[in-house]
From TrEMBL:
Keywords: Membrane, Transmembrane, Transmembrane helix. The chain crosses the membrane at residues 20-42. InterPro entries: MFS, MFS_dom, MFS_trans_sf. PROSITE patterns: MFS. Residues 1-44 form the Major facilitator superfamily (MFS) profile domain. This is Major facilitator superfamily (MFS) profile domain-containing protein. Signal peptide: none annotated. One of its GO terms (molecular function) is transmembrane transporter activity.
Length: 44
């Protein structure tokens, strides 16, 4: 999909960006979810 939307010379940069965002979101998602459940309460 990256190869379809980016120029050949930009593919490496785009793949790096996608990998970076994927890694950061996999850490931040559970962290933010835990904070929300802890401080804003989760209706059960």
């Amino acid at each position: 999909m990256v190869s379809e939307v980016s120029a050949p010379e930009e593919r490496g940069r785009m793949m790096g960006l996608i990998s970076f965002v994927w890694g950061v979101s996999s850490v931040m998602g559970p962290l933010l979810g835990g904070l929300i459940v802890t401080y804003l309460t989760w209706p059960s």
